[in-house]
Amino acid sequence: MTENEQHKPLTPTELIEKYQIGIWRYLRVLGCEASLAEDITQETFLKILRKGFDQYNDAATAGFLRKVAYNLFISMQRRSGRVVLVENVDQLDAVWDRWAGSDNGDDIIDKLRDCMDALSDRARDALEMRFREKQTRIKIADFLEITEHGAKNLMQRAKKQLRECVENKIQAEAI
Amino acid sequence: MSLENDMPQETENNNDVPLPNDPLIDALLEEIIGGQSPPDLASQILSQLHDSLPTTPQTPVNDLDSIPTPKSTIVARRRARRRSFAVPVSMALSVTAITLALVAIVLNSSDSSTNNHGVANNQIQTVENPSTPHIQQSNGNSTDPETPQQETLNNLQITTADDPNSNRPIGPADVNTQAGGIDSLPPIHQRWQHPLALANTNTVVPAETDAILGRIRRELEKKWNENGVSPSEVAVDLEWARRVYLRLIGRVPTTDELERFNRTPKQPNPSNQADARQQLVDTLLYGDIYRTEFTQHWSTFWTNTLIGRQGGLGGDNANRGGLQQYLRESFAANKPYDEMVFELISAKGAAEAESEQFNGAVNFLLASLTKNDTTLATSRISSVFLGQKLQCAQCHHHPTSDIAQDHFWELDAFLSGIQATKVNGQTILTDVDSGGVKTADGRVGVFFERPNGVAQMVFPSFLGHPPSELNTTSDSSTGDQTLLREQLAQLTSESPLLARTLVNRLWSHFLGYGFTPSVDDMGPHLAVSHPQLLLILSEQTESSNYDLKSLMKWIVLSDPFARSSKYSTSNDIDSPELGDQPLFSRYYSRQLEPEEVYQSLLVLSGKKRSATTIGQQQLAQRTWLGQFTKRMETDDGDETNSFDGNVHQSLVLMNGDLMKQATSITSTSVLGKIIKSPMPINNKIDHLFLASVARYPSANEKKLILALFAKPDISPEQIFQDIWWALLNSNEFILDH
To answer: What is the ipTM, given to two decimal places?
Structure first.
């Protein structure tokens, strides 16, 4: 008996509960606002549940759902007249597939949290102000007593370091 | 690995190449730090699957294939700004969606069989099927739900043909509008009611003008003391007179008018000065000589306020001239403001003056209807008359106050019976008893879509106050929709918010700033700079039976209106132009409105204005103004105004026909009269300054001008003309100061 034959198809409820977080996160990574990501996630499930599809295994289902969501996102961007930088989206798609291709992204979230702990206090403060308090760069700069450009640089370098940290953790696990 | 040591030191080097944004990390940080957690969408998705209909009976291939899926929900969500029964396409979608939802509800509540996922498995008919829910006209003729005609929108009722009671309208038994049913989601916000929306029973004793002026002064002094501010000096008579003419009749005063005012005895008794100023105000407000100019100025002001500068000029159903005629007649008769508001909201009749059914007041709502979409009308009624800017609540709850989406649509429901039709080339505004959706007990409601795509039905309610609290002579609960608009008119005209908004608007007109940052937005989320003063003036306005001239008189005779526009170190913190709350310790200089520039130049060119030609003059003025304003075609009816000191304005003023007329030397123009008079040159120069900027020239100015007359190669006429042109193109002329 093959693996595919052993795989039991999920009910709609199970399917949604299992994959919705991953699809939503994937769309957010592609650049969707939270509300738009929510819309497209719903639309993705409605589409595939209407048409039906063969459930071979978890990775195939997750990949198929991401592809439908991706196409809906591109289609929506096109309808709204926005220029879609396909190369950039494709790069993001590839990275996310490598980072969270086999789960909902929970593991990456955990890794990123770990990496956050290693940031300097000033870098963490800057990111906290930016993402939690939605402060402008000017206010962040005032708080840290640096220039606006310095605040921007600080945050961008912190994010670069976070990304490298996550990549290192993934590679370490692969070895 | 530790990042502590790897983190670069923040740099202030501007040449440092910025790193690109990282949407991947950004998205994850927004979740980790910003708290944007993934939503649980399972119930929503399954709910939408429940509500969907298969197009044909299906044999399940597997578990997933057995579940039908509705059409795209994203597109439907994008239509949140559309009123369900206003636009044919959205109406067709909404009616279909609602009907489908109803059928699903009925199916779910019945004993019908379900598949092993608990999903309804009934064979529900398609649109093409005879048992499809029909959109039926009131005359009983069914119509294609995919192609409804706009003319029939208000004659529609929803019925379900496969229902035993298929010919009855949908009622509460079918649609549970309180709990369960299509709007079963709990309200996101707690129900909000505007505390000042409904008429109060408090009786305020009308006060004398002097007493009101005293209260204004005391209330302002409190703020000055709190802020350590001393007001500016009192403006000199000529400075004050110029602004009174500009604010009350919309033009600069002539030399004769200024000299007449100057001749009024004022010294040494200070009370004589007050008497002289009051006398001038009374003359401008009540004198027959200024009746035409007063009515023209204020009809223009209110037309702009009600429908913008481009309303009724071909881009909508309204006739601007018709509205202006109605307003002129109302101001000539000194009609109480609340009465005008009642008429503007409840008016029925034809837009054009040529029609036997002419009622100029209909043009307010006609300018606010797009076909029969009433959202702009609702927005304008709430903002212009009630000071409640509800536009954003069309699509979502107000972000910073308790105003919910329901409040907008509940107000909009009062207009569900309105209908604009073309009859023999004339536009008629009336009401029909078939707009919106009627429940079996006769209530009329409208549908709107929440941001999550759920359709919600609401019934008329006035800023959160349900019908049971509305004490009106027109009872809409009888189900007669033709009474709904009248009910809204009564509620609006009796609401204390009407007086507050009026006071704020006129205060802003006369003094440059209102008590709130925007006169159209006095919602609970915005602080009022002088709440007690606003309350006093509002109550006195109500007790004066909304006599507009009384309110104008209080403001133009008030302390801040009489202050100089010059500020000193004692009140330089009074800077509303920087976003601070105004303290009214000085008169705020501002550019004249384009209509005021036009009328001023017209008077200086010697054109006579009479009641018989006022319609043509307003038409000419509209043509001139048309080059500065443009519709933005937004849902809110916004316009752009390029009369803001830019190059376009400068070129038109410096070289336009109007300026040529004003600077021409004719027997009727001000310049021509001055040149031809036997006065000495000194006096002529004084007259030029008085007529344009309402002051005498300084010694230095006069010295420079007299030097010009010493030049033999320039004629005196040419010198006078050049000086006159320079004065009319100066900042001092274009400013109200």
So the answer is: 0.89
